[in-house]
Amino acid sequence: MVSVTTLWAIQVLLVLVGHVYSLWIARDVAGQLHPGDAAARASQLPMLLSMIAFSVMSLWLLKQPTVMRMSWM
């Protein structure tokens, strides 16, 4: 079995790799869509800011303790 700490580290690594990879792909697509480097970089600012916010929220959610909640329906 895998310890909780190891599992959390794997999840963090996967979140960060996925977000870096998505920004890399977005940079390539922006380079194809915009002729100039400045225009391509400027088009990526909203994506960069939203991915940073998404990464922070994902990592925060992964760090939250898991609590079993029961529903008494």
Q: If you had to describe this structure to a student in words, what would you say it looks like?
A:
The chain has a domain at 14-61. 78% of the residues lie in helices and 0% in strands. The protein has helices at residues 4-33, 37-63. The two termini are 34 Å apart. The model has no long low-confidence stretch (mean pLDDT 84).
Describe this protein with a few key phrases:
mainly alpha, 2 helices, 73 residues
What proportion strand? under 5%
Helical residues, percent: over 70%
Principal-axes shape call: elongated
Low-pLDDT runs: none
Topology, number of strands: 0
Cα-atom radius of gyration: 18 Å
Q: What's the total helix number?
A: 2
Mean pLDDT equals 84
> Based on helices, strands and strand pairing, what is the structural class?
mainly alpha
* Largest beta-sheet details: none
Order of helices and strands: HH
Taking the alpha carbons of the first and last residues, their distance comes to: 34 Å
